[in-house]
Automatic annotation (TrEMBL):
Keywords: Membrane, Transmembrane, Transmembrane helix. This is Cytoskeleton protein RodZ-like C-terminal domain-containing protein. It comes from the Bacteria. It comes from Salinactinospora qingdaonensis. The keyword Transmembrane applies. Residues 150-161 have a biased composition (Low complexity). Residues 135-161 are annotated as: Disordered. Pfam families: RodZ_C. Residues 83-138 form the Cytoskeleton protein RodZ-like C-terminal domain.
């Protein structure tokens, strides 16, 4: 009978890392950091209340609120100190979810909107150019706006002088 003994000796392989492998690792790390930063940015932008109100520098460039109210399907202006305003397309995008201060107003021309007003006594509301009385409604009052079939120009939130 043949009997063989092998001494098991650990062998370590010392390859130097190539430039290609190093560049691949750096590329993966940079890609990971970029994805985390972009993900955080878009998450922040998607949170309610992060919309921007446009405030023009020249107050003479503003149209009169009455003209704006008549030319839009929804017009809300804060007359009191402040009010929470939520405007959204039913089953879709949130257009405004913010606390508006006295003098600020917002207009929209979408065909259908869901509106919630935190302090109805602090705002004036026009629907299709007609004033809608909401002052006596309870806090958190909600209603739906259906636009007239006539085309209207699109406007953005702004502040009156």
């Amino acid at each position: 009978m043949i009997h063989a003994t092998f001494n098991f000796v650990g062998r370590h392989r010392n390859d130097p890392r190539g430039v290609g492998q190093l560049l691949a690792i750096v590329g993966v790390v940079v890609l990971f950091i970029a994805l985390v930063v972009l993900g955080g940015y878009f998450l922040y932008r998607s949170l309610p209340g992060n919309g921007e109100l446009v405030v023009p520098d020249d107050s003479a460039a503003l149209t009169q609120p009455e003209e704006t109210a008549a030319a839009s399907s929804l017009y809300i202006r804060v007359l009191g100190e402040s009010s929470d305003i939520l405007v959204r397309v039913p089953g879709g995008k949130v257009l405004t979810d913010t606390t508006m201060q006295q003098g600020q107003y917002v207009t929209y021309d979408q065909p259908r909107l869901d509106v919630t007003i935190g302090a109805p006594g602090a705002v004036e509301v026009f629907v299709n150019g007609q004033e809608r009385e909401v002052a006596d409604e309870p806090p958190g009052y909600s209603f739906t706006v259906k636009a007239d079939s006539s085309p209207r120009p699109s406007t953005t939130p702004t502040e009156s002088s």
